[in-house]
Write a structure and sequence with these properties.
The complex is a heterodimer. By secondary structure, chain A is mainly α. Chain A has one domain. In chain A, helix 9 crosses helix 10. Chain B has a five-stranded parallel sheet with strand order 2-1-3-4-5, with helices on both faces. The N and C termini of chain B lie far apart (57 Å). Chain B has a single domain, classed as SGNH hydrolase (Rossmann fold), CATH 3.40.50.1110. Chain B is globular and about 45 Å long. By secondary structure, chain B is an alpha/beta fold.
């Protein structure tokens, strides 16, 4: 039914997709690569290097960048597939991607469990009798593992992939809608966001509580990214060029920066007017607070303004490491989560000075870059091999990643 | 020659050893910036100066007590009482602890009325957040409970100190307490209450090498010393915020 519709209206669908034919936007790879590095740094709690990550300078953080670009590239890759090969084929590929991410998540979970079990077996200190209750779930591995398979049990730092999986599961109809009626799709997404806020929609987590990244809220960013990829960015380009938008964005970024300063420099707290903090706090990450979303939009508007698509530096060797990481985001994201576990483990088991933290952070990024390069190399040699002739040609256009 | 060298080494070893061993208890000083606060303890100041009475109720969960022999006596509420008695000569100091392991803030709030009517405290030290993080309470709900509790304490005429979580590097990757710490800071600010930033203070001790909080041990030595130091830091904060240094000088004169 859907597929028939797709074939019935090939032109109507193809026309709002002018950006799809112009090839790969290296800026996406660059910023997704940088976001992956920042997520890695943020995931090592005791790390002097995470003073360099953007969450300390504004409301939004690397997660917003990652989800937005993921939505953008998903629409880019699967939008082409849907246009060229129909709803069924494109959906099948989206779902296969969701499955891959699911497997990656369970793999990471296994490693995490090993680390936790080690801590539980070796660490004992009466000072932390209460905190150690967090390890109680180890007493019921059957339930815990089952809940993990259901994506309900998610240890700290393992929340992004389940969000991504859920977003992809619902992506095929959304993508169809986005190509058919982009404005309607975006409005629908915004409506779900508003309803989620109004009625406290979220998915349940185990052992209690709700998902750390509420899919009903975060879908807005993902869908917005997809909308931009399917011609929305062009529609916005006039707006993005206006000096007023630039001024508002810069003013808002400055405001957010000033607010974050009061979090870290105690004496500045007294300059924060009570009515403002009453209105503004908490800036909710779980439900993608409007202030965070706006901060991301401002950041994106300023970035697009100063980093044009044809920016020569995008081809330079200097930015190559970040771009290569961004092109293999799933693998590098998982690797980053693993490296953050490992790095934190080293810091807590042996030594945790600022020098070690810096060393571990840089080494981690180096490993991420090396791995990404290796994956690129594999793709290259496989691209030359005869087996690859039936491979869809568009996958590599967006880095083969969605 | 060998003897001389041996003596030199022995002297170095001895002085070194002495330097490490002796001042362990006093070394847990905390930078003033971690103790200072804009808020005052007006009720405490008034009651100590006029009635020479300081009744403190500690409401908290598992990290406000130590298990094992002498657990209650070496935990920070008892240590706080001792230190305050030493520092506020002439004041009748009493610290009553109402501590229940794993008790969430919402449950504590429902028990506050009884604590306030039984103890008639002029200061409530409210340690919260850990149990809520453990049981997955929503930070938003935590915020509401804390608001309600602080309001009822202040309505009863007592001052409030909110004490946040322990810094626990080993469980940090499994138990994220930062959202709860943020809420406690906000609630303290909004109600003019004091925040005892145990999280930052213990982190400071860990970074400064005062305590190695990564250590795995079944013994109570370090836990007792940490609680002793928390009691001291808490006493300093109370005396600072209630401007009681002058009082002590008056009474000792």
């Amino acid at each position: 039914m859907f597929a028939k519709n797709m074939f019935a209206k090939p032109l109507a669908v193809a026309s709002p997709l002018p950006s799809l034919s112009t090839g790969r936007d290296l800026r996406l790879d660059l910023f997704r690569g940088v976001a992956l590095w920042l997520i890695f740094l943020d995931h090592i709690p005791e790390n002097i290097m995470n003073w360099f990550t953007i969450r300390n300078y504004g409301f939004s953080d690397a997660t917003e960048i990652f989800i937005f670009i993921s939505g953008y590239t998903a629409a880019f890759v699967y939008g082409r597939a849907m246009r060229d090969r129909g709803f069924v084929i494109a959906s099948a590929r989206v779902l296969r991607r969701a499955w891959q991410i699911y497997v990656a998540h369970i793999f990471l979970f296994t490693i995490f469990m090993a680390e936790i079990a080690y801590v539980a077996a070796t660490f004992d200190n009466p000072l932390y009798a209460e905190e150690m209750n967090i390890l109680d779930f180890l007493k019921q591995p059957d339930i815990t593992i089952f809940q993990a398979l259901l994506l309900k049990f998610k240890p700290v730092n393992m929340d992004v992939l389940p969000l991504y999986i859920v977003l992809l599961l619902f992506f095929p109809p959304m993508l169809y809608l986005l190509m058919w009626q982009p404005a309607f799709a975006l409005a629908g997404s915004a409506l779900v966001y508003v309803l989620a806020w109004n009625f406290d929609w979220n998915l349940p987590a185990y052992p209690n509580g709700v998902w750390f990244f509420n899919p009903f809220a975060w879908q807005l960013l993902f869908v917005f990214g997809a909308w931009c990829a399917l011609g929305g960015a062009q529609r916005l380009s006039g707006l993005l060029r206006s000096p007023a938008v630039l001024a508002i964005s810069l003013a808002y970024l400055l405001f957010a920066f000033a607010v974050t300063l009061t979090w870290y420099i105690e004496p500045l707290g007294r300059f924060m007017p009570g009515w403002l903090s009453d209105w503004m706090y908490p800036i909710d990450k779980t439900n993608l607070d409007v202030l965070r979303f706006a901060h991301f939009l401002a950041l994106a508007a300023v970035t697009v303004r100063f980093v044009p698509r044809e920016w020569p530096a995008l081809k330079s060797r200097l930015l190559r490491p970040a771009i290569v990481c961004g092109q293999h985001s799933l693998e590098i994201f998982c690797l980053g989560v693993f490296l953050a576990f490992a790095g934190q483990f080293i810091i807590s088991e042996w030594s945790g000075g600022p020098l070690v933290q810096t060393g571990i952070s840089l080494l981690g990024i180096l490993i991420m870059v090396a791995t990404a390069s290796l994956i690129s190399w594999y793709k290259e040699i496989e691209g030359r091999s005869p087996n690859s002739r039936d491979k869809p040609p568009d996958a590599d256009l967006a880095g083969g990643e969605a | 020659m060998k003897l001389v060298i041996a003596i030199i080494f022995a002297t170095i070893a001895l002085t070194d050893g002495a330097a490490i061993a002796a001042p362990q208890l006093e070394q847990c000083d905390v930078p003033q910036s971690l103790i200072d606060s804009d808020a005052d303890l007006a009720r405490v100041m008034n009651d100590v100066k006029t009635k020479h009475r300081l009744d403190i109720s500690v409401v908290g969960s598992g990290s406000s007590v130590l298990s094992g022999p002498d657990g209650a006596r070496s935990a920070y509420p008892a240590r706080l009482e001792d230190v305050l008695k030493q520092r506020l000569v002439g004041t009748d100091v009493k610290v009553t602890a109402h501590v229940q392991s794993q008790e969430t803030t919402a449950t504590m709030v429902s028990g506050l009325g009884k604590v306030l009517s039984d103890d008639k405290p002029n200061l409530v030290i409210w340690q919260a957040g850990t149990a809520d993080a453990l049981t997955g309470v929503e930070p938003e709900d935590f915020h509401a409970s804390l608001d309600e509790g602080v309001e009822s304490i202040q309505a009863a005429g007592a001052d409030v100190i909110l004490m946040n979580m322990q810094y626990s590097p080993r469980t940090e990757s499994m138990l994220d307490v930062s959202a709860f710490a943020d809420v406690m800071r906000l609630v303290a600010q909004a109600h003019g209450a004091l925040l005892f930033d145990r999280l930052a203070i213990m982190r400071y001790w860990n970074d400064a090498g005062t305590f190695d909080l990564y250590t795995a041990t079944k013994k109570y030595d370090m836990a007792r010393r940490v609680h002793d130091c928390i009691g001291r830091a808490l006493a300093s904060q109370i005396i600072n915020a209630a401007h009681l240094d002058a009082v002590r000088m008056q009474t000792t004169r």
